[in-house]
Amino acid sequence: MAGALLLVWGPATRRSPTGADMAIPAWLLGIFKPITELVDELHTSKEEKGQIEVALTGALTEAGVKILDYETKLAQAQSNIIIAEAQGQSWLQRNWRPVMMLTFGFIVLWNHALAPIFAWLFDAVLPELTLPGGLWTTIQIGIGGYIGGRSLEKITDSIMSRKQ
């Protein structure tokens, strides 16, 4: 039975809002696995086992659809925030994310490219712009969120133009 559920939900059965292939998350299959193993061990007729398997497959499908709907709504909400900021009245409101990403990009560029080159060329000791603990993770999340938000904004515009 567990193998049958995995067969039903292969890796290319659904598409996420970003267009990537999406399978049922492993943690969700993990929730259903003990139940499917229990069904395999039941001493009932094959017809009853089949009915239970169909019901479980339906529940797994419904849970997967709800997860996809949730992820779509979450992506849309994130996109709406970025769109609202981009359409804001204030220059700072519209541009704070790009300015921060450019600043972080400069720090990384300075520490890993410019400072070593200048130090080598001019035989000088140049200061390193240090990143406090956890800031690198923040930068990665920020860049990912900015790029993901821009992608979602473009996808949303594309979908909306198709509907009109």
Q: pLDDT below 50 for ≥5 consecutive residues: which ranges?
A: 1-21
What sort of overall outline do the alpha carbons produce when their principal axes are compared?
A: elongated
Main structural class: mainly alpha
Give a short account of the largest sheet: 2 strands, antiparallel
Order of helices and strands: HEEHHHH
Q: What share of the residues lie within helices?
A: over 70%
By DSSP (H or I, 4+ residues per run), the number of helices equals: 5
Let me know the number of strands. Answer: 2
How would you describe this protein?
The chain is an all-alpha fold and 164 residues long. The chain folds into 2 domains: 2-77, no CATH class; 81-163, no CATH class. 76% of the residues lie in helices and 2% in strands. The protein contains 5 helices and 2 strands, in the order αββαααα. The protein has helices at residues 2-8, 26-41, 46-86, 91-122, 135-163, and strands at residues 14-15, 21-22. It has a two-stranded antiparallel ribbon with strand order 1-2. 5% of the residues are buried. Mean pLDDT is 74; it is low at 1-21.
